[in-house]
Protein 1
Amino acid sequence: MSEDVFKKIVSHCKEYGFVFQSSEIYDGLSAVYDYGQMGVELKNNIKKYWWDSMVLLNENVVGIDSAIFMHPTIWKASGHVDAFNDPLIDNKDSKKRYRADVLIEDYLAKIDDKVNKEVEKAAKRFGESFDEAMFRQTNPRVLENQAKRDEVHARFAKALNDSNLEELRQIILDCEIVDPISGTRNWTEVRQFNLMFSTEMGSTADGAMKVYLRPETAQGIFVNFLNVQKTGRMKIPFGIAQIGKAFRNEIVARQFIFRMREFEQMEMQFFVRPGEELDWFAKWKEVRMKWHKSLGFGDNKYRFHDHDKLAHYANAATDIEFEMPFGFKEVEGIHSRTDFDLASHEKFSGKKLQYFDPELNKSYTPYVIETSIGVDRMFLSTLSAAYAEEVLEDGETRVVLRLPAALAPIKLAVLPLVKKDGLPEKAREIIDTLKFDFKCQYDEKDSIGKRYRRQDAIGTPYCVTVDHQSLQDNTVTIRYRDTMQQERVAIDKLSDIIADKVSMKNLLKTIG
Ligand code: GAP
């Protein structure tokens, strides 16, 4: 897939009511988006799939909904006040600001692309007899590029680990990375920039307090750890899940809803015995990958990417990356955060956050495995995978969203063949019986072909057409989105046919 397809997806999102630029009539607010009438349904279905997979399928995972505002010391304890920074660099000619690490990552990705293209070309040339591993080990151009990549990558990882801003700049200079806009290498120094938004709580006369808009939902879970453990009589290992808004003053806001300043996270902190965390880390990696793959977009679209730079509190971390139209990108992070957060909150609050383990007959600060996925990135990956343009037998093209039926915003469209003869009334009757279970849409405007196309474009898995025969024998034509096949079925069979495919339960059964 290409940038070109990505542009089409972005305009499709707007045209069909999935995503709008925030404050559009005022020329927009950068990196902030609104979800429209279709988008909110898809987003809610994604959230339900995640929430149910956590709190329905796991007896020992419960949910909470904590406030966005929290005591400012929380962000001192978590390390966000001092260390939630991005290294930024400006180009003096274009006056544009970039993340230094992203410039280098993009450079590395370009080398990867070069190598992969070389391999693909050779695979085509040699056909069946192609030995990819051998080719990678022996081809001089591949070896040269690989060596260059490894060298830059090693320097980059070290610079990040040491927070060495001068070295980051030097890598940019040495690799001759140019500003994509001005095309020049006229770079400033690299500086740290804190990503948290702040505001004031209370009136100034009372002595206003500086508070932050939370940059992650996780801290709301940590500070409620004992509340939930005690009131829920939870025994370790157990998890707390939460879905909610998070805010980051991203420097480089691009790629649509991939990197936003206001976004939504679905996070789960799993509290375990110290020493058992790496086993649980492996377990949650597996569980979360299965959750993604169960959507049926193809296993090759996902990969793990282990972190080069481990945060000081983590002893393992990986990302689940998805193949977006602009390459493999992080959708979810899975982190083994040790006892860093709870221990730090103990220190800053002066309150004990320990668990008494009756089996071991001792108290300890639990270790934590975190799974953290962005709703908006999940939304974007779902749309990217589902979006297809097809040339039909009659030469026409259709745009179809091949969304998993359980996630589709509208499950069923009911279409009277004509706007008269009692067909609209019959169509409404069908909706009135099905609307309690499925999100339905009624549409009587334009030709039936146009109406099918509109439903394809929003990913509706079923269209039901009511015609004159329906009035006589209570049957309708049901059309399937993916195959476009149609069949005549009894109206009272519709509920069963649809329920089977669109049910969240059946999707959850593939992972539970
Ligand atoms: N509590 C851990 C944490 O917040 P993170 O890797 O910074 O970890 C987790 O974020 C996930 O949140 C990411 O994998 C991504 O899906 C999402 N996310 C982070 N920043 C985002 C942004 N600016 N816009 C959209 N989604 C974002």
Protein 2
Amino acid sequence: MQTEKERELAPAGEPERQYYFMELLRRHNEERSAELGRSLTYHIETFGCQMNAKDSEKLAGILEAAGYVPELSEQADFVLYNTCTVRENANTKVYGRIGYLGNLKSKNPEMRIALCGCMMQEPHVLAKIKQSYRFVDIVFGTHNIYMLAELIWRLVSGEKRVVEIWDGTEKIVEELPSEHKYRFKAGVNIMYGCNNFCSYCIVPYVRGRERSRRPEDILAEIKKLADEGIVEVMLLGQNVNSYGKTLDSPLSFAELLKKVEAVEGIRRIRFMTSHPKDLSDELIEVMRQSRKVCRHLHLPMQSGSTKILSRMNRRYSKEDYLALVDRIKAAMPDISLTTDIITGFPGETEEDFLDTLDVVKRAGFDSAYTFLYSKRTGTPAATMEEQVPEAVAKERFNRLLALLSEQSAKQTGKHTGMTAEVLVEEQNEQEPSLLTGRLGNNLLVHFPGEASLVGQFVQVKLCECKGFYYIGRQV
Ligand code: 5AD
Ligand code: SF4
């Protein structure tokens, strides 16, 4: 078969190999398009976190280089689900929707379905897909997203179903195409994987060991983004505070931030996520002195109880967390803190939960993501004694939400009457006469304005606080 011969001719080195397959596919798709009298379309559905959102931009970049054009609905010729498995309800959602894709496929003979992301790294998920969702054409994991073009080519070459999932990798493939959802802000991976093994968390198993990108590669990417007009970058990693430890010539995250700060054209720098155990005084100092690093820290606490934190393998105590918050606020009184909190972790008693409420009262969070503990097969917490009944976890969850909304309204409202610089992100969907902008501290503000301001910095007076956002007026 012609296609097999072409595969044998593929370069061995990356990223050349992938560019070769993108080009083969592009030609193939062009021919197919001519036969059909229309373009071939793609649709990517992203579940989960910012890492997945970033991966989806890379996947979109590959698909567009291969000649597919974006389609907003799932009625497309190539539909890709980039999945999340951090909590059980994420999985349930995905299964339901794959079933729906099956129906669509029966109506469009051209349609191909691919699944990737964290869920696919779990053996029981793959088994279920192989058995119950036979119409899925391609399945791949978190370590080999860069080879999407090659995987599609294998399908084109006649393989019935392409499954390519790796347990781990040392490899970081640079220099592949990437699409950007926004033309003024972009995420930049600085590291992959996680070595922390918090006892509830599946991420280290599905995203593998921690690997830092080389600073030269990160900076080259950011410079290129700045040249393309990007003004805000979000540095991404599961635990950015341990960046650089495994590099040939180690570099701290704080040092990396200083280098990013020096890139001309970049005006705002954000990062996530920070693990409290690794957040250094050096980083606080760099943030304090910086003109570009935004005054916002996402600092997941998970629980306020030292006993539960120890069972979670978080490696800090309630007191350590509060002391860290004090150090951060002493250096930057205007900082906005946000956090993640889990209720119902195995062994959590009413007293432990009261410790969580206590930290919430004392830390002054602007907002928090709250989660019901979800048992993930294969993690140490899944087999711990004293699993908390769901009703108890839910009841605590609701009490936590009530306290948080009271606290965050107080915290957020502090800026009422002030004028601040916002980066205009979009026209408001419900009310097109309004724009939505983001403050340095990550709060949103809606204000009347022209759509031409999207992507620009403007000064906005924060007139009225509506809980977690403001209504403002351009000045
Ligand atoms: N159950 C509930 N929440 C979890 N998270 C991670 N794993 C679980 C789990 N098994 C939450 C943590 C983490 C956020 C991204 O998701 O709070 O910080
Ligand atoms: Fe999961 Fe903990 Fe790693 Fe975050 S730091 S990804 S919660 S193991």
